[in-house]
Amino acid sequence: MTGKRIVWDWNGTLLDDLALCNGVLNDMLSKRGIPPVSRTKYKEIFTFPVSDYYKTAGFDFDREPFPVLAEEFMALYGAGEASCPVHEGLVGLIEELNGAGYRQEILSATRQEELTQQVASRGIADLFERISGTGTILAHGKSGLARDWTEKYRNEEETLWFVGDSPHDAEVARLMGAKCLLVSWGHVSRERLLSLGDPVFETPEALKEYWGI
Question: What's the angle, vertex CA 166, arms to CA 160 and CA 167, rounded to 5?
């Protein structure tokens, strides 16, 4: 079957959780007497695996192993996640893309259980053909998930795009054989994204124009 498919990243790309993640990180740093990370700095250091940016932020894994810190982060994140909206303009765009015959799904480093709940709670689960998450809260990344997806679902007759907000998403797109589209409203600075050489979009309207919807 020929067609057009879009795979979306979730956190930062669709879900507007940058302020929450930055705030939770700073709460954890403050608890340990470590200086906070500004929004600008956060977007400069955020990366996958997430453990790398924790180190850059100042955590000492010799004192506290990363899995312990990850549990703390997820507890604090979970307490505030419900307040995070989908980025303005994206639900309408996704609906229009569905109407134009694009098939869409989500692929995320978020653990499957939480991802399913987060998408469903925003009333948008039915807009996607598939919602794929990982089996861990440690946010190692999506590479393994992308390989599995490619083996199971990749159709070379389809035109495939992957939309994300990080250098890791560019890697995932290549693993999937997808065209990579990056958005600057997420967890990584526009400057870092531009350095990758893939198209970078600053608004949902710009994405809409790209697809000619």
Answer: 85
- How confident is the prediction for the chain on average, in pLDDT? 95
H or E segment and range at residue 110: strand 102-111
153 within 8 A of 175, measured Cβ to Cβ: no
- 143: which strand partners? none
Number of Cβ atoms within 10 Å of the Cβ of 122: 16
121: its two tokens? 């709670």
Q: Are 184 and 46 in contact (CB under 8 A)?
A: no
Main-chain phi, psi angles of 150, to 5 degrees: -60, -40
- Tens of pLDDT, residue by residue over 165-202, are 999 999 999 999 999 999 999 999 999 999 999 999 99
Radius of gyration of the chain, Cα coordinates, nearest whole angstrom: 17
* Residues ≥6 apart with Cβ < 8 Å to 71: 137
What is the enclosing helix (H) or strand (E) of 6?
strand 3-8
Per-residue confidence band for 135, with pLDDT thresholds at 50, 70 and 90: confident
pLDDT tens for residues 65-105? Answer: 999 999 999 999 999 999 999 999 999 999 999 999 999 99
Return the DSSP state at 206. Answer: H
